[in-house]
Amino acid sequence: GGNTTLPWGMTSARIKSYLAEHELALEAIGMNIDPSLPVHPTFLYESLWCLIGFVLIALYIKHRRFDGEITLFYAGWYSLGRMFIEGLRTDSLMIGSLRVSQVLAGLLFLASLIAWIVIRNKIRLSHDPEFLKLYVLTEEGQEVVAGTYYKRLKEEAAAEKSDEGCDCAEECTCDETCDCAEECTCDETCDCAEECTCDETCDCAEECTCDETCDCAEECTCDETCDCAEECTCDETCDCAEECTCDETCDCAEECTCDKNCGCAEECACDCESAADTANKE
Fold first, then answer.
1. Percentages of the chain per state (helix, strand, coil), in multiples of 5
2. How many C-beta atoms surround the C-beta of residue 274 within 10 A?
3. Which of 29, 76, 82, 117 could tie 112 with a disulfide, CB 3.0–4.6 Å?
4. Could you read off the pLDDT of 93-148 as tens digits, one per residue?
5. Residue 143 to residues 130, 140, 146, 154, Cα–Cα distance (Å)
6. Pairing state of beta strands 94-95 and 98-99?
7. For 113-141, b where at least 16 C-beta lie within 10 A, e where not — what string?
8. Percentage of the chain surpassing pLDDT 70?
């Protein structure tokens, strides 16, 4: 800062050198400086000013009336002190003869003061205790202070997610698995991982049971009834892996038993023996 005769004035070789180097420039802005004399410790003034402001805020915080009032208080308090302290400095940023920080501090102080007065006046004229009520005094604010607010939000989100369902009443279409609460049951059509298509009822699983037609992995086709498994039983005609064809009854297995005729790939024994075979035995 500039020269002072106060007992807390400070000096040093570096300060004297700086003042001697900028003596003419300081005279141009109205500061008559003697490099040999002590100067104001402006950094100390600003630190003490902020400390006093902290004490005032700590005392006033319980009396605030609206959210943001402490911010306005600090902005006004700091800018008021900075406006005066900046006038003592010898290294201010200048625009012509104006100290930039001093001008900004003055504007900030006026803005803070006007905003504080206007908001306080609105609260007073509203005659409503809920008008601009402090957030910490609201029900939600009290939950935050108690530490239960975010816990409640998580519980509500979990409950909402568990209530979500899947409407599979008319149609269910799946690519690999049915994502309808891990299971999907439909009344008309269902396409699942193994591509099971039915005419009436489909349970979206690894099995498919139908009343009329069913196409399975081993391509078993029957005229009347089909159980989609590895076996196929028919009343009239059945084509199996070993090509067993019978006139009346056929059990689709490795054996073929018939009443009259039987033609299979690996010779199928029949109960009806020819008369010629009986004569030859005699």
1. 40, 5, 50
2. 9
3. 76
4. 888 888 999 999 999 999 999 999 999 999 999 999 889 999 998 999 999 999 99
5. 18, 5, 5, 14
6. antiparallel
7. eebbeebeeebeeeeeeeebeeeeeeeee
8. 57
pTM as predicted: 0.54
For 228-233, which contacts have Cβ atoms below 8 Å and span 24 or more sequence positions?
228/196
Query: What tokens does 177 get?
Result: 């698995």
Burial of 13 (0-12, 13-18, 19+ CB in 10 A): exposed
Calpha distance 143→135 (Å, rounded): 11
Task: Return the number of other C-beta atoms located less than 10 Å from residue 6's C-beta.
Answer: 8
Tokens of 226: 């089909």
CA 98 to centroid of chain Cα atoms? 51
Cα–Cα distance for residue pair 189/175, rounded to 1 Å = 13
As beta bridge partners, residue 98 has: 95
Identify residue 253 by its one-letter amino acid code.
A
**pLDDT score for 164:** 65
What are phi and psi for residue 281, nearest 5 degrees? Answer: -65, -40
